[in-house]
Amino acid sequence: MWDYTEKVKEHFLNPRNVGVIDAPxxxxxxxxxxxxxxxxxxxKLDEEGRMADVKFQTFGCASAIASASILTExxxxxxIEEAEKITNQxxxxxLGGLPEQKMHCSVMGQEALEAAIRNYRTGxxxxxxxxxxRVVCNCFGVTEPEIERVVRxxxxxxxxxxxxxxxxxxxxxxxxxxxxxxxxxxxxxxxKATEAPGEKRMTNIEKIKLIEETIEREIRPALRQDGGDIxxxxxxxNKVIVSLRGSCAHCPMASFTMKSVVQDRLRQFVSEDLIVxxx
Amino acid sequence: xxxxxxDNNATTQVAPEVIEAMMPFFSEYWGNPSSMxxxxxxxKRYVDEARASVAGLIGAQPEEIYFTSCxxxxxxxxxxxxxEAVGGRPHIVTSCVxxxxxxxxxxxxxxxxxxxxxxxxxxxxxxxxxxxxxxxNRDTALVTIMWANNxxxxxxxxxxMAPLVKAAGKVMHTDAVQIVGKLPVNVQEVPVDMxxxxxxxxxxxxxxxxxxIRKGTKLNPLxxxxxxxxxxxxxxxxxxxxxxxxxxxxxxxxxxxxxxxRVARLRDKLEARILATCPDTRVNGDPDxxxxxTTNISFEFIEGEAIxxxxxxxxxxxxxxxxxxxxSLEPSHVIRAMGVPFTAAHGSTRFSLSRYNTxxxxxxxxxHMPRVVDRLRQMSPFxxx
Lengths: 279, 385
Known about the structure:
The complex is a heterodimer.
Chain A (H helix, E strand, L loop, with lengths): L5 H8 L12 E7 L4 E9 L5 E9 L2 H14 L4 H4 L4 H7 L8 H20 L12 E3 L4 E2 H11 L4 H8 L9 H24 L4 H22 L2 E9 L2 E8 L7 H16 L5 E4 L1
Parallel strand pairs in A: 7-8
Antiparallel strand pairs in A: 1-2, 2-3, 4-5, 6-7
Helix pairs in contact in A: 1-2, 2-5, 4-5, 5-7, 6-8, 9-10
Chain B lengths: L3 E2 L10 H7 L1 H4 L10 H4 L2 H15 L6 E4 L2 H16 L4 E5 L4 H12 L4 E4 L9 H7 L4 E5 L13 H10 L3 E5 L18 E5 L10 E5 L25 H39 L3 E4 L9 E6 L4 H10 L2 E2 L1 E2 L2 H4 L6 H5 L4 H4 L2 E5 L6 H21 L6
Parallel strand pairs in B: 1-11, 3-4, 3-5, 5-6, 6-7
Antiparallel strand pairs in B: 2-8, 7-8, 9-10, 10-13, 12-13
Helix pairs in contact in B: 1-9, 4-9, 5-6, 9-14, 10-14
């Protein structure tokens, strides 16, 4: 049995905004019956250009239904520009997490939303050109750009993870080597991108951005596992001021966490000379 | 909360009589049946009795029954044991709808260089006897084909296949885990050389299985390091579970009639009502040759995991061949092998009954099933308006 969060179960049992809209401004379809899940998402804008109505229909499991349902709630009231910033990780976070093998349900939500926005802007119902390309996984029809994207946006390192997020490689398995090559290439590109600022002097803005990213990616998930959290307060020269939240705030191990988790990670990923202090 | 358990092909409730029979072997008679002293040695009698009970259920001699830890071990032992005894890289014949405990072992040997024939099935899940006959060649060491399929309940004609295999001079194994205890099985009438069975599929405990090996069949042991089970399966006997399996087999004989009449009638009623009240449904498998307790129904346009979770909300336990329930991304290999269209494969749902199900259980499902299906179809983009 899957270990679904209460939020996933609640949205599965009481899905919001199921249905269709007459003459929607944008409509997007993702997945297919053959693939085992499919989602149709549509929206109508009000005179200010905000999503006044959002509706979905889905063929899929509990996590597919919950992902679509919560996505409709998230984007209601948003402008197109705000909505298109939503990532699959945002959907996962809103749901309080998804089982690893179900991550593709959140990706399907994000992709259907993008398709709907593209349909609104261009009138097209076909796959966006930036997503078309060489088909790597024939079983599930997943293209190279689509795999590159899930690797980049979710920092994936194994074929198994790529399968969980995109379904690619989940059928006959003959594309596993191909997927591994794509992972290696994208990871190398990402490594280069993060290393580059370290070689030359970072501007303060760049440094703050990189610290934020590192906290988000490398530190926060570990603290959250123990019910804690961390907030970045300020960056002054090589001093990083942070505040521990949640259960970390009054944890007897807090100073240890500060030194050996927060400071070490920031030194590893941002700059060797950083000193972390508590606000 | 109502609890209607219709997932008996996955596992069954341990019969209270079985638990009762097992208990003394945890508390009082915990000795080792191989011991020379009375305290241990007296236990051997109960192991022998259990062996006779298992043999009695399938028409075997007690000395042809070997206890294992589960059905999967029995399957592994049969296939590996014969392939290793023959040596080299022999040919194996199996079907494409086997349980993974058979299919994965065959594919393991395929990767090791053996030729493996996986016989196809037709749309009803039936095997072609002629294809079986043609597939056997000079290098064939073993034919391993299940007696009844766990997902659809389809029964293969083992009584007709085994003589064909024997006539060709080959060894025949059958995974009979699903059929033993539900329908009569007799190895005196059906010339299989090896047969796997499992305790927890027939109201015995988990963690105990057995394999029937006809006298004269050559196979290497899977687990070595002891004289137990006449050298074919080392390891101190799991006495309480062996006793439990023995008692479960005795009970299975008593309840066989009930299984074929009352349980079959409940299954038929469930199936007929679901087909009548839920449009766009179909039965998977062969309704004419089927276990009396199983029905596998596909609900078009909706997905199996969602069906199961909504059934779970009203206390109904069933299972599905949907991709999402297994953690894999593709629907069940059994459903796909029958060529069931994708539209129906993802929504396939199995109900498997047992002697403990009642008329009220079935009425409860009949009452709730249309609501579950309607609710999901209202969400589905594939439902034609």
